[in-house]
Structures are given as C-alpha cells and as structure tokens.
Design goal:
The protein is of the alpha+beta class and 220 residues long. The protein is built from 8 helices and 11 strands. The protein has a 4-stranded antiparallel beta sheet. The protein has a 4-stranded antiparallel beta sheet with strand order 8-9-11-10. It has a 3-stranded antiparallel beta sheet with strand order 4-3-6. Helix 6 crosses helix 7.
Length: 220
C-alpha cells in the first residue's frame, strides 16, 4: 500500500520493535485505552485459539498496513468477548498510536478515514476469500495457492520465507501439519520444490499453478 497518508502517519506515533509472539491488542477498557499500529517491517496475523487449544490463523498482515484498530471503533461500552488476537509472527517494527490519536484522526482527517475504510474492506474481503477457499479447495490446491502468494523473488529464485513452517502453513489452511508435510515431501520428490536455510524454494511455479484448479490428481 502506497497511500500518502502512511508517509505522514508515523509522525503521530512512537516507533517500537517487538519480538515474535507478542499480542498487540489488549481488550479495550477505560483503564487500558488501547492502541492501533502501523506495521513497518515483519508479519503479524489475526488469530484465535480453537476449542482444542490450537491456534488458527485467519489473515496475515504485511508491512504498510494499519492494524489493531477494531476495538477502538467498537468502544469500551460494548460487552463482547475478545475472541480474536493480533500476534507478531516474526520480529516486527511498528509505529504505535494512542486511542486519542485514532479518535482525532477520525474526526479531522478525511484522508485517514478513506484509508481506514479501504483497510476494513480489504480485510473483510481477504477473510471471506480465505474461508471460501478453505471450504472449496483441496489441501493440495490450498497449499499451492498459499505458497505462491507468499513467495518472494530472491537472487533469481522464488522463495517462501522460512517463517512459514509446515505448522504455520497448516494453521492458515485449517489442516494438520502432517498433511502439509506429506504434500511437501511429494512436491520435493517431483522436483517442484526444495528447501534450504532461506525457506521453501519454488523451483517450478508453472507446475505448482497447475494444481490450483483442483483438476489434477496428486496422491500424497
């Protein structure tokens, strides 16, 4: 996202660095007014804990995204359980803003309001698409789509960052890490993927894309 508001928004907040595994959104209360954040570097995720005590991931947040503002919109007077959390999935650099800053921007900055509405719409759409694909796609198609979406070019190769372990991929796909491991083993056997210290290497993107339609059989 290259919206101009993000180039000036940082002047309203304080820059912080957080390690992996830090929960950003504390339940809104009058005693703990809460914050919202602009993610500058790293990856965060919208998560919850299932009845089995397992983490489920619904949405990843990447740099140049504002996050953690939902509780500031709903306000402290609404009685609701904090079912979802935003957690840092990697070491992150963020700008942190107070609830008062959020309210002032809402009241006086039309550019911020427009960007906030766009962010809400993007989040809503991405979560809907994610759930639709989880219901409709096979485990193979879902895994291939996720890997292609998060891979980045590095030194002429398409690399999935090592943050995306088999367990992490399974949390997002709603499947078991053993299933991801078996699919990946077959993919590596066929020469479509490899793995090194940087993460997963997609050696044949064209072959991987063929599985997105679900038309091809793939025994794993």
């Amino acid at each position: 996202m290259n919206e101009p508001i993000l180039d000036t928004l940082s002047s309203y907040g304080s820059k912080i660095k957080l390690e992996k595994g830090v929960y950003l959104n504390i339940k809104h209360s009058r005693q703990a007014p809460g914050y919202f954040y602009l993610l500058e570097e790293g990856i965060c995720a919208l998560t919850s804990i299932t009845n089995r005590g397992e983490e489920a991931v619904y949405l990843y947040f990447y740099p140049r995204r504002i996050i953690g503002f939902n509780q500031l919109i709903t306000g402290p007077d609404q009685e609701r359980t904090q079912e979802f959390s935003i957690v840092t999935k990697t070491p992150c650099t963020l700008y942190r803003f107070t609830a008062d800053t959020f309210q002032n921007l809402l009241r006086h900055n039309q550019e911020f309001n427009s960007f906030l509405m766009k962010t809400l719409a993007d989040n809503y759409y991405e979560v809907l698409v994610h759930f639709h694909r989880r219901m409709e796609e096979s485990a193979v198609a879902g895994l291939c789509r996720l890997l292609l979406n998060v891979a980045r070019p590095v030194d002429g190769q398409l690399i999935v960052p090592k943050f995306f372990t088999y367990a992490e991929l399974a949390k997002y796909l709603g499947t078991h890490s053993v299933t991801v491991s078996r699919i990946m083993a077959k993919m590596k056997q066929k020469g479509y993927m490899a793995k090194d210290r940087r993460g997963i290497i997609i050696k044949s993107p064209e072959s991987i894309r063929q599985f997105l339609t679900g038309d091809q059989d793939f025994d794993y």
